[in-house]
Protein 1
Amino acid sequence: PDDITADALAGLSQTPKTLPSKYFYDARGSQLFEAITQQPEYYLTSTELSLLEASMTSIAQAIGAGVHVVEYG
């Protein structure tokens, strides 16, 4: 098998399941990553949102007026 097949089989046979991040950077990898982050088992998205919501007032006070925060990822 090619490298991606071998990597996928190895990673998806583990608990917890993993895939090497090197496959996340092409168009298909980006689609897969987006799908993964929407799964209930992927807690990072909801945890990040909860932290931002809980801290948004403090963050806004710390950075001051007229500042725009842009999150590219």
Note: Residues 26 and 47 are 26 Å apart (CA to CA).
Protein 2
Amino acid sequence: MLSLIRTPKLLGTYIRERRKELGLNQSDLAEKCGTRQASISLLETGNPGIKLENLLLILSVLQLDLAIQNREQSSHSEIEELF
């Protein structure tokens, strides 16, 4: 299934849902990723300060891939609304 994610909050929500689908709590996921539970919590609540390397590791543990595609032309105001 393809999910469109354009904000840190949406990413966090998707990661939380996937973690729960796999029957993991935040501590379980943190242990598998070699990080702290607090880091998982921050990510799931939309904190944008995660390192790309850590995000990719978390996605891997959750059996998710990151895909990038071109988007249709957006106006400046639409982009500002996202961030």
Note: Residues 8-21 form the longest helix (14 residues).
Protein 3
Amino acid sequence: MEQLKNFSIKSIILATMGIILISGIGYAQEWKPLVDWGHWRLGQKSDLDFLKKNNMTITFGSGAPNFEYVTRAEFDAEMEEAKAFNRSYHDKGYIVLRYLSSSLNGKTETPTDIPQKDQIDFLEFYQSRWENFEDYIGPKPPKDPTTWITVRPDGTFPYYRYAPYGREKTERFETWGCPNNPYYVRMMEGRIRAQAETGIDGSYVDWTHIAGETCYCDYTRRDFIDYLKETLPADVSEEKYGFSDYLNITLPTERGDDFWMEWITFRGYSVAEFHRRLRTVARQYNPHFMISGNVYGGFGYGPIAYDAAGNIEMLGAEGYDDFIYSEIQEFLDSAPRKDSTGTKITNSPALKFLTAAAHNKPVIIYATEITPPIFPNPSEQVLSAMAQINIAEAEANHTIFREKRQTPPGATMFYKFLSANENYLVGAKLYSNVGILASLNQYLADELSFAFSASRVLADEGISHVMLVEDDLLSGKINDFDLILIPYIPLLSEKKQLALGRFVERGGILLVLG
């Protein structure tokens, strides 16, 4: 009986331990990042002392290696290391993000050579080691990765060579795969699946674009024809262009060609759908995985949507990007300040637009360069002031500022303040009863828009306002406003014009420019 009693006690203890262990496993699996801009303070390095000192809540985690640069044994080992790293940061309460490039890299003989397609690194991987990663990227495609590259009408392709500030470019180059090529997309789905498996909370995908003057591959032609069939009725196309035989279409190559606006809109749609597919795959392995593009906005979101297919309104829609990562600022020219003539320089209109396009999802702003060599020999006082004014401008417009290389004492003080007041920021949204309609469609149609200019005028007059995008006209958000300023009318669809009519019928005021 005593033995039975001891056995029973041991059984209870072991069962209890099993419950605790199972509960612990369940707890680890249920980590869920707080996706709210008021909680997000992004540290530019993962050093724990730095993160704690600056009250950061997000940092950069450890991700999966690229298939083409490792053996399978190396890949598996690095995956386990990444999982352990990310788990340890989650245990400390940090959200971890990871950079992911969509480029295809290669090397030429000299830094001045024009890259050739057969010089991309993925070609050697395709020829010798693809089979080692078929569980991630599927069977070897019938055509090699040189056919993935975005091409101009003559078959040539654009490329980029990176060099850190003050250094010479090297033999390394980057080019880009076509988001309409199913084999390239399948490889990228494998890449982001591996990222998700490491336990990171999300990736910002660099090179969120289709390079200008591309892509004219057969897959793009096929998908553009399908896009026209879905979005441009034949009778409308006949009336607009005198042509509706989409199967025999000549793809437009420059402004003024038939189907030009449909073409540049389709390119943005292709990038957005590419991101949606990556997000869908990643969430099969990490249900809370977040994705963002790395959308450069240093010379405006209109040009980026027009020439590079980075349509921020498409990417910000529900089911696409979960946050926005934008390289909006470059050098000191865009730092908020007064210039030598006394004119105030501000990024606020652009930040308001990003917040509107993202529908209040987190927006990360990266970053005014306040360090050498762009700003030679800055004093600590100057660095602190520059950081504080950038952080303040970002926070005032519902965005998150990320320093590039340094976090001076002034920034540390500001982050401490934000941390102490986080309970007021989480859940907070920009609000005003005055809204300005901003839309990239105006730019895509080669028409002027005065949304940013109107925002600046209202700000200079001390009139509080926010921006809204065209999608908001068909949602309940339109009811937030007493007055909506419309910088244009002709490009609005009939459905959206009727929505504005109902807004007026309910007592709203429309102010139309032009």
Note: The chain has 18 helices and 15 strands.
Protein 4
Amino acid sequence: MTHSEIIKIINNIEKDWIDKILETRRCHTILCLGKLEEEFYKESIDLKAISVLKNQLVDKFNRLAACQEGILNEFLKIEDGEEAYNLDAEAAEEYRDRYLSAMADIDSKFGKLFW
């Protein structure tokens, strides 16, 4: 095996590892967001449950954002990582949009109650 072939294998392993970390973080964030949205649209709204879920979502999203930033920087260190960086940045945008939409829904429905 040549040096460049070894580097390519290492880069693929690193990218797979990075993808797994992000996938796990995103899954946790989406599950929490789903629970919040489910609670938010019930006929009988449980303000305490919404407050707890909102706080959990903010925490999970902040952790995801920190992880995302670090991992995107790691993608740039990997040979041919720019394409992975761009794809991952697009995926992150979808999560950010959904998160911001949920926060806007809570703010419009409950105003300053949760802030």
Note: Residues 3-40 form the longest helix (38 residues).
